[in-house]
Specification:
alpha/beta, Rossmann fold, UDP-galactose 4-epimerase, domain 1, 2 domains, 7-stranded parallel beta sheet, 3-stranded mixed beta sheet, 12 strands, about 35% helix, globular, NAD(P)-bd_dom_sf, Epimerase_deHydtase, NAD-dependent epimerase/dehydratase domain-containing protein, NAD(P)-dependent_oxidoreduct
Length: about 290
């Protein structure tokens, strides 16, 4: 299958591109810099020069494709307008290509603070204000007649380099303290980028149009013990953690970062039962700390 990937050099996207190439798909990734193009080519994809902010400049060069994976956002204040304008330009072009498959990326933060009750695909949305725009966008994808739309909602994504735990690792390497947003009790549903990439591939290859799937390998783990272990193993016995508020992290990184304080649980059972998804990374500390332990 010839697949076009937007956001193909991010934590999610690069793992997805690598997985698709390994499965024999022909992958074209959108690249807004020479370094992004090189990263795509290094894992076996080809690159199309372009930026999601200016689709009119590259859509004319997009070859006929059979599928699209949209995993691109820049977390800027205008990300709503950027995404809407991208779909406005892209969907009519895809309509002329025979209704290709289209996988849109949502996220666990669209469900708000679920506490100990795992969000499932039919749970009502309660998004952070910074991401409320995404709900009508994903509904647009699921109902668009120009494509065969599906949605993947990733849990909190980590990889060998850290992913969502990157700030923990960075602060621990500097001796701490490791910041924990909202409190050590806060639970994060988690998924390794490589496991999530397999889910994207399965959705692309097997899912029916109109379906959504949660990419959650671990339903919800308290952040405090994870942060403490990272602090001790990497930073040493004197390295500790520090609780920071959602207001503080929002001031530092933007309103979207309030999501780190959400106490959440999320079920990935539908992906397991319907698509045969079998995550293999079920111990984040082993993945993150093996070289130092």
């Amino acid at each position: 299958m010839q697949v076009f990937v937007m956001g193909g050099t991010g934590t999610i996207g690069l793992a997805v591109v690598r997985e698709l190439v390994e499965r024999g798909h022909e992958v074209i990734g959108l690249a807004r810099s020479s370094s992004s193009a090189a990263a795509l080519e290094e894992v076996g994809a080809s690159a199309l020069a372009g930026d999601i902010r200016m689709p009119g400049l590259w859509l004319k060069d997009l070859p006929k494709i059979e599928a699209v994976i949209h995993a691109a956002t820049d977390f800027a204040a205008d990300m709503c307008d950027v995404d809407s304008q991208l779909l406005d330009a892209l969907l009519p072009v895809l309509a002329k290509m025979g209704r290709p498959r289209f996988v849109y990326t949502g996220g666990c933060w669209l469900y708000g603070a679920t506490g100990s009750v795992p969000a499932v695909e039919t749970s009502p949305f309660d998004p952070l204000p910074a991401f409320a725009w995404m709900v009508p966008q994903l509904r647009r994808v699921l109902t668009a007649t120009e494509i065969r739309g599906t949605v993947v909602h990733p849990a909190m994504v980590y990889n060998r380099s850290g992913g969502v735990f990157l700030s923990f690792l960075d602060h621990a390497r500097k001796g701490g303290p490791v910041p924990v947003v909202g409190g050590g009790h806060v639970r994060w549903p988690l998924v390794h980028a490589d496991d999530l990439a397999v889910l994207y591939a399965l959705v692309l290859e097997r899912a029916e149009a109109g379906q959504s799937y949660h990419g959650a390998a671990l339903t919800g783990l308290p952040v405090g013990p994870l942060a403490s272990a990272i602090a001790t193993v990497i930073g040493g016995a004197d390295c500790n953690t520090r609780i920071i508020s959602a207001d503080e992290v929002a001031k530092l990184r933007g309103e979207w970062a309030r999501g780190y304080a959400l106490d959440q649980s999320m079920s990935g059972e539908k992906a397991r039962s319907a698509l045969g998804w079998r995550p293999v990374h079920l111990d984040p500390l082993a993945d993150l700390l093996l070289p130092w332990s």
